[in-house]
Each structure stands twice: as C-alpha cells, then as structure tokens.
Amino acid sequence: CSDLVSNGENGWICDEMTIDRFSSLLVGIVDTPQNRSAAGEAARESSRERFSIEKMLKNLKKMYLEVE
Q1: What is the rounded CA–CA span in Å between residue 41 and residue 14?
Q2: How far from 61 is each of 36, 55, 56, CA to CA, in Å?
Q3: Number of domains the chain is built from
C-alpha cells in the first residue's frame, strides 16, 4: 500500500488497525475538507502518471519481450 499511497499527500494509511486509530483517522479526514480535496487531486495526478496508457504499453511490451 505504501508504494501507491503517500500518507497525508495522496491518501491516508492507517498504521495501527484498531477501532480507535481508524476512527480517529476518519474523523481527521472528514474534519479537513481542504486536505481531503488536495489529497484527492494528488491521488488523481499520481494515478495518471503511474498508470498512463503509454507506461502500461511500455511495461506490457517489456514483459512480452522477457517471455519471448
């Protein structure tokens, strides 16, 4: 997960899977709409960069050539 999400930048990672920690994280997200909006935009941009059609085709070609 941490290779796709930068905690607090383009999403949030719950570092401790307890009800208290998870609910605290959710409250923080809900209470800060500006951070939520910025993280959403950063996540969209990150997805566009990481998973562009050009990169996907390049990686697919590379995998195909390795099998060949």
Answers
A1: 20
A2: 36, 10, 9
A3: 1
Asked whether the whole model's pTM tops 0.90, one would answer no
Domain that holds residue 46: 19-67
The H or E element that residue 19 is part of is helix 19-31
pLDDT in tens, 34-62: 999 999 999 999 999 989 999 999 999 99
Is 26 part of a structural domain of the chain?
yes
Got the DSSP string for 29-58? HHH-HHHHHHHHHHHHHHHHHHT-HHHHHH
